[in-house]
Specification:
The complex is a heterodimer. Chain A is mainly α. Chain A contains twelve helices and two strands, in the order ααββαααααααααα. Chain B is built from eleven helices and 13 strands. Classes of the chains: A mainly alpha, B alpha/beta.
Amino acid sequence: MRDFAAIYLQQFRTTFASFVQYRASILIWMIWHILEPLVYLVVWSAVAASGGGNVQGFTARDFSAYFIVLMLVNHVTYTWIIYEYEYRVRHGSLSMALLRPLHPIHADVIDNVSSKLITLPMMLLAAGTLGVMFRPAFHTTAPSALLFLPAIVLAFSLRFILEWTLALAAFWTTRVSAVNQAYYVAALFLSGQMAPLALFPPAIRDTAAALPFRWMISFPVELLLGRLSPAEAWEGLGAQAVWLVAALVLMRAVWRSGVRRYSAVGA
Amino acid sequence: MHENDSSHPDGSAVTAVDLRKTYTVTEREGGAMAALRSLFRREKTEVEAVAGITFRLAPGEIVGFLGPNGAGKTTTLKMLSGLLYPTAGAVSVLGHVPSRREKAFLRQITLVMGQRNQLVWDIPAADSFELNRAIYRIPERDYRRTLDELVALLDLEPLLRKPVRNLSLGERMKCEVAASLLHQPRVVFLDEPTIGLDVTMQRRIRAFLAEYNRRTAATVLLTSHYMADVEALCRRVIVIHHGRLLFDGELADLVRRFTAHKTIVIELENGPADLSAYGEVVSSSEGRVTLRVPTSATAGVTGRILADHPVADLTVEDPPIEEVIERVFSQGPP
């Protein structure tokens, strides 16, 4: 355990030092993460205004609360691992990682977490600014705020493990970007990034609940906004936990067979 | 401090028995029609990169691993370091099966590839070293001592604090080598460690490897296209060609077996003379004649020349090692 702490600390220093070199690209990612929900926020607020003040119970101020929190949750949980893996497999840098007595996922976890630590203050500042501009309405209760913490940790873990597993498609195909596109589109609809899932027809809502997407992004947002009953909140945390276990099992299996394939065809 | 119980029963550090690796590659003709056809049916061919090689390395040995491009050297090194599963045959490194990639195994080996890097591009090498210290769980005292040694031997002091991307190729290679050896591996695989480096830097790395081997008694298997590397470091060489073992033995024996000729250089006291009766005249100028003669005839020819001509100086030389290797690669076994 202490060894792991040392590795994580050192990897954090390394990543931090690297990130400082990439200030510009970090800034561009952040702008993207602010602009995307901002567009939806503006569009849905306009729809609410023209629809007599609300859309299925969402007022303009509800929408602004939803998308501002979504912006933060999405930022905290996003990964860029799928882009990375294609490069790693093609250029052989994965081989160097496989020679080390440490599972390569650890470096990726730290990479991700440290980049978030660097960018989160600025994202909070952006959220605050948007809050002043769009006057969001929160119905947050103390229990929902408390449960939000495990929910966001589970959401991050689930999204990270799933996308890391998906990135391993690079072992089988050089067209990872196609896989990524399909995943991205599905996630855009079913994780509540384009619109709150509550606005979708029941069939799509049920589909979203049966798939992992809602549990990666939308669920913590709904929870923090106070839109879920205590029972729904606990059910959601349960669903997150179940999906996380399933994702870990899947990752283990895919990693093993991926490495076997990689070392069969020429690392 | 290294446990010795992990060695192979016969005492070898590295054992490969009838090692094979076959790749399946899809092939197609160039052109749009062929591309379209390949959508539906792909021609698959089996390529035998390593076709059954057997060798053993004793602990502490430095062995040169030679062969032309595509001979199967890198494939073999990757099988020995656990990156590739062998198609058939058995490998044992320090008593481990490499392809299982057990942590205890990975902590005791290293693979340096001249064309790949492990150092993080954007940060100083010193930071990557620290990361390796954590990953390999190197005790602080051992780490300090090893690092100091490496810094002194490779003259790294001025490089440690610069971002790796600002280093020259040679400087980076020195740092790569240092990073790969921080955990004091007992078995070191080096794939073209001096590729692209200038002569001074090559000599530096070479001297360092010899010293490292002397100090740590690590087993080293080295591939290189620079014969100077091999001559300076390896008494024993293993030559493979088309995935098969061509030669395994002392470098001097390789030269003897694969060269049917020796070179005799004669300086005549009385100026130019025609020596073509004694052998093939390679060059002749101002009384200095270079002859190529069959090895078996060398003694006789030398005796006759000394008897027949006033000779100021006479030397018998083996052909340059590059020439020998070229002959080995182009001919295969004699």
